[in-house]
Structure formats: structure tokens, C-alpha cells
Amino acid sequence: METYTLIVLLLAGTIRVATPLVLAALAGLFSERSGVIALGLEGMMLGAAFAAAAVSAVSGSAWLGLAAGVAAASLLALLLAFACVTHRGDQVVAAMAINIMVAGLAPTLALAWFDLGGQTPQLEGAHQRFTSLAWPWALEARRVPVPGLLYADLLSGHNLIVYFAAVLVPASAWVLYRTRFGLRLRAVGENPTAVDTAGLSVTGLRYRAVLISGALCGVAGTYLSTAASSGFVHDMTAGKGYLALAALIFGKWRPWPTLGACLLFAFTDALASRLQGVALPLVGVIPVQFILALPYALTVLLLAGFVGRAVAPRAIGVPYSKEK
Amino acid sequence: MSAPAKLPRWADWGLLPAINLLAALVLSAGIIKLVGESPWAAFKLMAGGAFGTPDAVGYTLYYGTNFIFTGLAVAVAYHAGIFNIGAEGQAYIGGLGVGLVCLAGGAWPFWVVLPLAILAGAVFGAAWAFIPAWLQARRGSHIVITTIMFNFIAAALMTYLLVNVLIKPGQQSPETREFGAHAFLPPLHQLLRHVGLNAAPSPLNVSFLLALAACYFVWLLVWRTRWGYALRVAGQSPAAAAYAGISPGRVTIGVMLLSGALASGLGVNVLMGEQHRILLDFPEGAGFVGIAVALMGRNHPVGILLAAVLFGALYQGGSQLSFDMPHVTRELVVVIQGLVILFCGALENVFRRPLAALLGRNP
Amino acid sequence: MSRAVPALELRGIEKRFGAVHANRAISLTVAAGSVHGLVGENGAGKSTLMNIVYGFHPPDSGEILVRGRPVRLASPSDAIAAGIGMVHQHFMLVEDFTVLENVLLGAEGGARLAGGRDRARASLAQLARDYGLEVPPDAVVGHLSVGQQQRVEILKALHRGADLLILDEPTAVLTPQEADQLFQLLARLRGQGKTVILVTHKLREIMAVTDRVTVMRQGTVVHETATADTSPRALAEQMVGRSVLLQVEKSPAQPGAPVLEVTGLAVRDRFGVPRVKDVSFTVREREIVGIAGVAGNGQSELLEALAGLAEPAAGSIRLGGRDLAGLDARARRRHGLAHVPEDRLRLAIIASFPAEDNAILGYQDGSAYNRGLLLDRAAIRAGCEQKMAAFDVRPPQPRLRSSAFSGGNQQKLVLAREIDSSPRVLLVGQPTRGVDIGAIEFIHRRLVALRDAGVALLLVSVELDEILALADRILVMAGGEIVGELSRAEATEEKIGLLMAGVRAGT
What does the pLDDT read at residue A309? Predict the structure, then answer.
């Protein structure tokens, strides 16, 4: 029974860690499927995390924080689209520029506005954060041995954004494969000339895709500072934007496999955290730094294609220009 | 496809980067205003902090030395068409190599320690760049993501080593013991005193000269040797490279090894020249500044030198600024950095075309 | 016959791309319910003109009237709305999508695909009945044959309600049987009152299916006639034209021993499609062998395989008896094989490099330009100056950026570079593409001089004048194969034109 409880708790932890990854990866999905490289996820998430925490602290409402987070990330996305789609700038350089800029801007504004050494004030109370939502009869269900625990600890008790992310996966699949917008989006990432010839606007589609990715990064960033933690701290994304991109590549740019990749990352992370300080059979206690480095090393392994080669959308990374 | 507007040489190399810098500064001024301070006062403080006092110049050049190394590292890779974001991690691990030699060779004479340390740093830095390079050349793994990952892994690795393995026994802070005196790089102000010149004390040391030498070496390599030629051809057109008998895969790996080695120069400057021990996070973001410096300096050693000094001034001035204006962090300089990368790199075309039209040249 | 409103009328269409005058004062009338042919060699301006009609580019000046009404076609959606559909030479299909999805793109019929899908399916079924255009709607386009893919393109246009259908070089990629099926389709379309513009260089098709034909050459319309009133030979003459026949002083060839021997060469492109099929020929010392043919018939792939830039799927290449298999471009250079590529700006020259840097491209490792570890810049500059002087490259400034030189001067520099190493064999692709008349003459004279000095030259060109001016022996390539060989003495423009266009001798 002990093991079962442990497993359930581990899985629950996995879900919580996976949520920002899933949101960011799906954000990357829309962008990359339209042909724009999604290296800016990190910066957009960080910016959103700051904006959400700041606004939530000042206004007292996590919902306003969410709106601010989404707005901040969308603004950054707009900047990216302006540089890359309208001005055909280098997508990698533009994304890195935004990431670096936000990395400096967030603590600067935080210090200036809150004077806490680069952080935002601690978020307190049920209104300033997204707190766990218990499903009906969760407390009672816990007493029921096997399925009850599953219900009480795995399904129930997460915050709203987690459930949103869960719903987002099938929703993205639906949008991508069953709507007009999704069809056009996929087309513009594979053969923008074909889209142009069909009488559609390549620029318009790419702008929309990048803005959607901004909005979703906004939710991801908001989650980090108002749900997973209670405030913004320096560099709180710690590379999650890049991990999400790697998960997307590993998931072959499709919603469900990407979810799988994110869960894999998150599970590894959660498992590793559990193993902190625990002596393992052959190797003894794994140093905490190695555990911290695990997601990054895993990313490199995945990208090395030891788990299958990935084929990106055909037209990705190449600014579109008409032929003669 | 309309070609990028052509500008006369002086505009392409001088005016346009200056305009881009100006745009970055204007936006930064906006941010300073947002933060509630006066941009004019802030810039004055920064300028004063960077050049106002005798020792300030020394500090500016000391920081600039770091940026010369990382800027060269990024630029060299850029010529081959590769965006090396891993200079931070390569500098970090390169520094490990430098530090290990210094720790091991405390009793050796200076003229043995220095070249060995430089060599070790170069080897370690190159080694850290090797895996991402190999993965890109052989497996097509996006080098931008892998180098970023290696930055994180480097941080974790160094933390582990400094906390558990290399730490000075009995000490709390994660750093090694001090190097033996023979591993100290003489500060320039001391050397200048020997020649009768009075310079204010600052950490500016001999590695500045090493950095200048590196500039010359890179210039020589890229523009005056057949390997540099091959590099530039591969960066411009893989098809032309094949036509000329150049293997793009080999170029990728070779240039990244060089890039990592160049970044390690930072370790020499900081560890042997100022800190005299290995400590946590001694690169302090210089790897990323290198990107801004390379882009602003148009990937040429002379431009990199100037841009590095400029960013050194920004950093030194930024330190001063955060003393006098407690509301402004040192991170503001990071914002300026990001804006410079944005304007010099991604929004390049925004100012180029109007400038070309203004100067009367049509594409 | 009643004076029906023409389906399409163009008046005075002009279009320039920088220095290139692609369309000059084009006027064209296409009768409704007819199949109208538009012929001309590559570079005549046909595709540009049709792209203008499809709204891809605005014309610099001129008018377009559809069914008698002037229209402004600022984008493909305007053209589609005006009832114009186009099947491009390079298909505009999303390979990973199904046929149905490709047809739906742009005409989805609603935000959710479900409803539109059923309607499209029904429409496709109807079109299949009306025109015999059978394609499985749920097949992935990337898996279809080229002929089937083309049918999808046509279906796309018809589904959007096209009354005027433009087909750009439709049979360039079809087998003869598929081409015949296409002709039957075109006849059926005409029967249903649709109008078709068939853009092609293949005269057999023009004769088979068009009612009227317009001939374009070098950006203008040179001839227009009813198909019944003309013949393939007359059209070939008009296509190839009596343009300035560049006279080159040429003594008759005195070929020596064979130097380059190609046997059973087969080359595939990167998708595995065979582009060169069982090609064999020999080039001897002091001889210029010209390969004539319309672009896209395997000449480029042949050159790439010979130069060491692509690996052949079968066959052998021998230079002076030595098999070149496995040797890359640089190694082949060392064995005496030099290459002036067709695609100058992609392969032969780095536009941003100064001229002197391009003057050593491919030769950068040799001792001529290196002194120890460093490049011998003085030698490089001197070498470049010497090349510029010998080939009259203007302006003779080695430090000038290559993009500042005209096409002709760039090409002269490339030629000077490749000749400098005294090759035994020189491969030359489209030597005068984008080159002015003066430089053309210069280059031609130099190539002949090379021949007389003992070099074996293989010349690939789509310009028939050039082949006739230079070649001692002419091989005609079509569909990846050599379809004819003529000596210069027996070759005439007509004969070659007909072979090029797929009409075998004796038809």
C-alpha cells in the first residue's frame, strides 16, 4: 500500500510539473507548425510570470494576474512576429534577443516597483493565487482504498490551470486537425507558396500562430508564479521554455505525443526529486546537482535522435518571399 | 527576392551599428523612465562610472577583456553560419581547466603555469563545445538548443564540483582555496609602474594583452588562412562549399572547438587575474554578452574590440548606477544587451533600407 | 462566327525585375471556350506573364480584361474570384495532406472542416463524372504519382469555379500516356465551355490540342496564329528565332584522343526520381561537345554527377582512363576536371566575397596561393589581377565585392579561374546566362581557343544559338536521355528544335 500511495503522489507531482511544459510546448506547436521557430518560449514565459505575479500582488486578484501574464507574453510575441514575419529577420536571433531582454527587464522592473531585490511580493490568500480545487467528495473518497486514492490525490486537488492544460491537449488536436484554421496553419508551415496561391495570407496566418503561442506561454508563465509558487523570483523559468521545445520536437509536432514527452520530462524530474538524498543500490546517493541537471541532459539525448529522428515542418525557419 | 539594401562600407560598419545602439539606448531610456528615474541622470552616472575615475577605466577594460573572448567565440562560429549560445558554459568549463592547472601547479614557476593553464582552459572549453557540434554535424540536432542545455549542465556540474570536490576544507562558500602566488597574473597597473607610468589599481591584467593577441589571431585565421576561408565559404553557401571541396560537417566541428577554446580565455582573466580561485558562476553572463558584442561588432575583431569595451563600460557604469540609484539593478545592462541583439541582429533591416535610401543608394 | 467576348485580354503588359525586362508590351487575346497555346523557350517570359494573370505579381503597366471587364488582380484570391485557375509547373501541393485536404485549402466552406469536407467530396465526385478526373480523395498527395498530383491541381482549380484554366508546362513531368490523358481532359473542358491556356515549349502538344497559338521570345509576342494554319517546324523557327547568330571564328575541329568517357550513367535526384537514364558519350581532346535540350531534362543532374557534386546511381565516369568514382569536386580538380557551374550565384561565386577571394574558390588549398600556414595574399591578388587582365574583367579591382560586378564579368572571372589550372576537361553549364552580348562574344572566343589548345569541353546550354556557334558535335537531351546526336555540319536549328521539343526525326 505504501508503494501505491507513493506512486500516486509521484504521478500527481508529475502532473503539476508537466503543466507549464505542456502549455509552453503547445504554444510552440502552433508557432512551429506555421513555420516560425519557437525559441522565444522561455522569454515569453518569464515575462508572463513576472507580469502575473506583479499584477496579482498589486490588485489582489489572480485572475487579473492571468490577464496581465497573457498580455505580457502576447506583446512579446507580437514583437517577435514583427521582427520575423514582417521584417524577415533571423528567427533564432530575434528569439534569443527577447529571451535575454526579458531576463534583464523582469528583475529590473521588480526591483523598481517592489524594492525586494528583484522579486515580487509574496502572494497570499486564496485570491492572489490559483489554489487547488477539490472535486466533490474528495475527502471522503480518500478512505476508499485503491480508486479512492486515485480520485482524491491524482485527479482532484489540482488548480484550474492544470485542468486547463489537460483540456488544451485534445482542444489543440481538434483545432489543428478539424478546423479551417488548423488546416491553413499546417499548410503554411509545409508549403507557404501553396497557401499564397490558394489566395490566403501567409503573413496573417503566421501572425495569428505566433500570437496564440504568446497567449499560451502567458498562461504557462502565470502558472509558474501564481500557482506553482507564490511570486516571481529571478530566472524562475530555468530553461523550461527550451525543454518544452525539445519535448515538442520529440513529440514530432503533434499534440498527444508532445504531451507524452512533457510527462516523461516531468516524471523524470519528479522521480529525481524523490530520490534526493536517498541511497540507491549501486551508486549511493546521487548528488543533488546531477538531479537538477537531469532534464537538460535528457533533452540533449532526445535531440540526439537516439529515440527516433524528427522531421520538422518543411518550411520552418525560412522567411517567406514570393517567387518570380 | 529583394536583396538587402547596399550601404557604403563606412555606413555598414560604423553608422548602422551606431544607429542600432542608439535605438537600443533610446528604448532603455524609456525603461529607465518606467522605473521612475531620469534617463539622462542614469546615463551620466553610467558614463562617469565607466570612465570618470582613473580606476574606472581599468575596470571597464577588465570587463571588456571577458567580452572580447566571448565575442570572438561567438563571431568565429557565426562566420561558419553557426549561432553558438553556449559560450557561457564553454567559458565556465574552460575556466575549470585553467583553475585545475593553477591549483595543481602552485609550486611551478609562473612561465610554466601560465601557458599550461591557457592550454588546459582551451582544451576544456573546446571539449565542452564538441558534443553539441558533433550532434549538429552528424545527427542534425539543433545546436542552439543543445548549447543552451550544455550551459545548464555546466552550471550543475560546476556547482557539484565546487560544493563537494574542490571546496577548500573547512570553508562554507563553494569555492576552492586560493592559488599559489605563481598562478597570479600580474595586474597591468603594476607592470606599468615598472615602466614609470602611474596607473590606478584595477583588476585589469595581462590577459587583456592575451585578448588583444586573440583578436589578431582570429583575424589572421578567418581572413588570412585557408581554414578561415573554408569557414566563411561554408557559412555563406553549403552548396558552394561542396563545389570548393569543403566539408560542412568538418567545418562545424572545427569551428566550435575553436569557439570553446576562445571562450575559455575568460577563465584566465577572471580566475588568474582577479579572483585567484575557482568560484561559482564566475562568467556572470559574459557568454551572452558575447552574442551582443559579436553582432554589434559585425563579427570582426576590430568591431568586437570596440563593442567589448563599450559593453565593459556599460557593465562598469551599470555597477556604479546600481550604487547610486538603488532602484536600478545591474540587470538593466542585460536589457540593453537584449535590445542591442534585437536591433543589430533581428531588426537589422528596419534601419538599413531607410538609411540606404537616405544615402541615395538603390538596392 | 459571332464576335464573342474573349475570355481573357491583355493589353500592353510590362514587367521588370530589376534589370531584367521579363515582359515587354504584351498583348494577347484568348477566345472563350478555346484551348490557347503559349509557346517559347525558357526565359521567354511565359511564366512571368501567367503569374501576372494569376495575381502573383502586379504588372508594371498594362490592362487585364476578364470576359470583357477590366480587373485588378492584386493577389491570387482576386484571380480566383475572377474565375481564373492555374496549375503551376512546380506543384503547389502540401505533400503531407490528402487530396481532399489540398482541395479544401482556401475553400474550406466553414470554420469547421466537417461540413466542408462532405461538400468537397461530393464536388470531387461530380467533377470526376464530368471530366473523368478520378483521384482517390483520401490518398496522401505525397504518395501519388506525378500525373495524379497534376490531376489534383486541376481539381483544385475547378473546385474553386475556374472558367479560365492556365496550365504551365503541364507535360514536363508526364509520361506520354499521361500526357494523352491530359489532352483528352482538355478537350472535355473545352466541350464544357471552359477556356484553357496551355503554356509549353512542346510543339507536339500544341498541334494536338490547341485552337490558336501565340509565340513568345525574349519577353515579347512574336507570332500568333490559328493552329490549323501552322506546323511544328514553323513554330520551332519562331520560337528559336532569327536572333543575332553569334558568329565565332572557328576552324574545323581536329579532335584527338578520348579524354572523358561516360558510360551508362544514371543519376537520381534527392527524392529518388531518376533524372539521367543510361547516358553514354565521349568527349575528346580539342573538341567541344554541346548538350542541347530544354532545361529540366537531366542536364543539370548530369553536370553535377560529372563534377563530383552528386553520386550517380549507376554507370561510370572516366577521365584519361581513370575512374572518378568516389572522388569529390576538389579531387577531380586535381585530376584535371574543371567546372563552370550553371548556377553561378549559388555554386561558383560567393556574392559577398571580394573578387580576389572568389578567384581562388576551389583552389584555396594549393601551393600557388599559400605560403606556409597563411594565404599568400599578394599572390592571390596578383593572380586575380592577371585573370582579370587576361579575361578583360571590368572593373579590374580585385578587392571589389563580387556582387558589384555584372553577370558577364562575374562569369568571365569564373571561367578564368577554372582555366587557370590548365584542366584537361572543362565542364561548362549555361556559360552566358545573364551575360551581356559583349561578354558572350568574349567567352565564346575563349572557349574555342581552349579547344584549340587541347582541352576537351562539354558545353550544356539551353540557348540553341550558343550550341550552334560553339559545338563541334551536338547531343540532344530530353527526358534524361540522349535522343539524338548530330555533327555541327549536319545540324540545323529546326532539326535540333524538333528533337528538343520531343518530336523525333521523321515524324
Answer: 56
Look at residues B312, B343, B251, B279 and name the one whose alpha carbon lies nearest to residue B70: B312
What is the ipTM score, two decimals?
Answer: 0.84
CATH number for the domain that contains residue A92: 1.10.3470
**Do C197 and C265 fall into the same domain?**
no
Q: What is the DSSP string of C242-301?
A: S--------PPP---SEEEEEEEEEEE-TTS-EEEEEEEEEEETTEEEEEE--TTSSHHH
- Substitution target in C17, C87, C94 with the highest count of A β-carbons within 10 Å is C94
pLDDT digit string, tens, across residues A93-145: 899 999 999 999 999 888 888 888 778 888 777 777 877 777 777 777 777 77
Residue A180 C-alpha cell reads as 479551417
Query: Same structural domain for residues C304 and C415?
Result: yes
DSSP notation for B260-315: HHHHTHHHIIIIIIII-S-BTTTTTTHHHHHHHHHHHTTT-HHHHHHHHHHHHHHH
C253 inside domain: no
Residues C276 and C230 in one domain: no
Query: Pick from B83, B139, B335: which is nearest to A305 by CB?
Result: B139
Question: Does the N-terminal peptide bond of residue A121 adopt cis geometry, omega within 30 degrees of 0?
Answer: no
Q: Which of B37, B159, B342 is facing A101, going by the closest CB pair?
A: B342
Neighbours of chain C (3+ CB pairs under 8 A): A, B
Residues 6+ apart with CB under 8 A from C98: C137, C138, C139, C140, C141
Residues in C closer than 8 angstroms to A198, CB to CB, are 76, 80, 92, 105-107, 156
Residues A142, A148, A154, A160, Cα dihedral to 10°: -70
Q: pLDDT (tens digit, 9 = 90+) per residue, B117-166?
A: 999 999 999 999 999 999 998 888 889 889 999 999 999 999 999 998 88
pLDDT average per 10 residues of sequence, chain C (507 residues):
77 83 89 91 80 90 92 92 90 92 89 87 89 88 85 92 91 68 90 92 81 90 90 76 55 87 91 89 94 82 93 93 91 94 90 94 91 93 94 91 87 93 93 75 90 94 82 90 90 76 49
Same-domain check for residues C231 and C281 = no
Q: How far apart are CA A266 and CA A258, in angstroms?
A: 12
Q: Which helix (H) or strand (E) holds A184?
A: helix A180-190
Q: Hey, is A196 helix, strand or coil?
A: helix
pTM over 0.80: yes
User: Exposure pattern of A283-322 as b/e (b: 16+ CB <10 Å)?
Assistant: eeebbbbebbbbbbbbbbbbbbbeeeebebbebbeebbee
Say which DSSP state B182 is in.
Answer: G
For B319-355, the pLDDT digits (tens) are 888 788 777 777 888 888 889 889 888 887 788 878 8
* pLDDT one-digit tens code per residue, C182-215: 888 999 999 989 999 999 877 778 888 899 999 9
**What are the respective helix, strand and coil percentages of chain B, to the nearest 5?**
75, 0, 25
What range does the domain containing C472 cover?
258-500
Residue A16 lies in a domain: yes
Task: Compute the average pLDDT of residues B231-256.
Answer: 93
CA–CA gap between residue C233 and residue A214 (Å, rounded): 62
CA distances from C56 to C38, C72, C73, C74, C88 (A): 19, 12, 8, 7, 12
Contacts of A197 in chain C (CB under 8 A): 54, 56, 76, 86, 88, 92
A283 in a structural domain: yes
Say whether B350 and A105 touch across the interface (CB within 8 A): no
Q: What angle do CA A130, A136, A137 make, to 5 degrees?
A: 125
Residue C338: phi and psi, rounded to 5, are: -110, 160
Give the separation between CA C333 and CA A121, rounded to whole angstroms. 70
Closest CA relative to residue B16, chosen from B286, B228, B297, B272 = B297
